[in-house]
Every structure is written in structure tokens, then in C-alpha cells.
Write a structure and sequence with these properties.
There is one protein chain. This protein is mainly α. It has a domain of 30 residues. The protein is rod-shaped.
Length: 69
């Protein structure tokens, strides 16, 4: 029985090899999620600046977000 189990494991490893992914490499979905977080943070910061400017009575000049981030 042990020999059969070992053979089955060997065949499974050949049929379904483990992907060689280093710990440093992030999955593309993680990279996209991090970029969305950065964009959301920049949008939120811009919104807070606008609120503060409106409360103080100043007009803000519109800016493109990629220039402020």
C-alpha cells in the first residue's frame, strides 16, 4: 500500500507541478490591488484638501490626480 501511495504522489507531482513563485514576486492581482489602494488614497487626500479649502473660503484649482499623487 505504501508503494502505491508513493507512486501516486510521484505521478501527481508530475501531472500537477508546483509553480515556481518566489516570495518576493507579487501576483498580478496583488499589484493591481496595491495600485487601486494608492489611487484611492490620492483621491481621498484630494477630497480632504478640497473640503478644507471650501471651509476656509478658498477656491481650489482643479488638478489631475496623477500629478498630485
Amino acid at each position: 500500500m505504501e508503494r502505491q501511495t508513493a507512486t501516486l504522489r510521484t505521478l501527481t507531482c508530475r501531472a500537477f507541478p508546483e509553480p515556481n513563485v518566489s516570495d518576493d514576486a507579487s501576483a498580478p492581482s496583488e499589484q493591481a490591488r496595491a495600485q487601486r489602494r494608492r489611487q484611492a488614497g490620492a483621491t481621498e487626500a484630494t477630497a480632504w484638501r478640497r473640503v478644507r479649502a471650501e471651509k476656509s473660503g478658498h477656491q481650489m484649482q482643479p488638478r489631475r490626480l496623477e500629478w498630485t499623487a
